[in-house]
Amino acid sequence: MNPKNTSASSGRVHVHKRQSFDRKHLSVDVYTLACERTAYILDNHDRVQVMFSGGKDSTAVINVALEVAHSDPRFERHLPLRTIFFDEEAIPQETADYVSRMFARPDVAGEWYCLPVQHRNACSRTSPYWWPWAPEDEDKWCRPLPDNAITHLPGFQVWPQEARMSIPDMAGLLAPPPHTIASLMGIRAQESITRLRAVTKKAVDNYIIQATGKTAQGNLYKAYPVYDWKHEDIWAAPKKFGWDYNKAYDLMEMAGVGVSHQRCSPAFGEEPLQKIHTYAQCFPDVWAKMSERVPGIGAAHRYALTELYAYKDRPEKPAGMSWPDFITHYLRKFRPKEAASVADRIQKEIASHYRRTTNPIVYKAIHPMTGLNWHFLLTIAMRGDFKGRKQAGARCAGKDPAKLWQDYTAEVAAIRDAGTAHEYGYSRPWPTDPASLVVDIVQKKR
């Protein structure tokens, strides 16, 4: 829900719990907390920079940072506020227009990077990466190169393609020592279990984390000042405080895209791919070029929501084939390097499961302790999940344990009765009394 039709209750941004595994009720609103965190960051780092995507979350971050920077003379050393935008090329023109407006502000020192950084291409298993603004693909660029684009960065290698780094890996190039530098980022715990865990690691007040990656040198920190904001907060704040925002969200709102699914980033990755049709609907100009930009995009547009890409449906396993063999069949569709990476991820998931329990992995029902099933592993084998956004254990969160055990033991019994236990890659005798599995686990916890 966008600012023009959203209001903040009682004149304040909504109050929410801190999003961590040890959630606490706080008698203060999230805007105030974000300002307090940002002030701490500005006080305790030599320099700060905002990683600005033009999206709704980084909109909150930059506006809070500017408010705090102007609030006290001791913060004036951070003005104009260094703001970094990585232009991902296949983005709506509304995003570029919004970034231009923000960079035109006198209190913002904008850096507009157009570099061929490595991104995931989930449209193709044989071409699993793409690079915005890649010089070899200039005839396919989705937009003209902006006039103020920064196209070279010391330490960033353009050739060969395999040497091109991702944004996290190249982050250190933007933050050379000896200064301590904090990158303010719009990471919110509500977005995914991966982001929730990012703010529950050992850190300073659980929102400042030392950056890692190929170029990190120990002086760079990632800071998440709005990590506990909800979708309602993200859109109530622009309404209450009169912030400018990316008008691409208005188009997605009118197209019926839910608030939690609105994205302005390129739709070529694993998760954005399921919303690729919204680009064709909402942003026809950029879509006309996107439709030819990366290998496999045509098929992805037609079949992204089918079993071909492991969304909604999954392909049916041939009768008599084991689940490990079925998984291997899909791994072979990747290039050898990526196939090995995905296979290693799957092996670790299985090993983690059997470290916690001796219960077999079944197809549909998720295991109540580990969240694992062959349906999940098949999804990983088909999509790759190279960014590690899918977490088996997260699928148990918020679910009734009794119902999970009921579904799980029922499927174990059904497999036993069907005589297909040999297809599940289970090295022990198949349980004859599935109900005893629950008792055994309860006893082990005592």
UniProtKB/TrEMBL annotation:
Gene3D superfamilies membership: HUPs (3.40.50.620)
Superkingdom of the source species: Bacteria
InterPro entries for this protein: DUF3440, Rossmann-like_a/b/a_fold
The name this protein goes by in its record: DUF3440 domain-containing protein
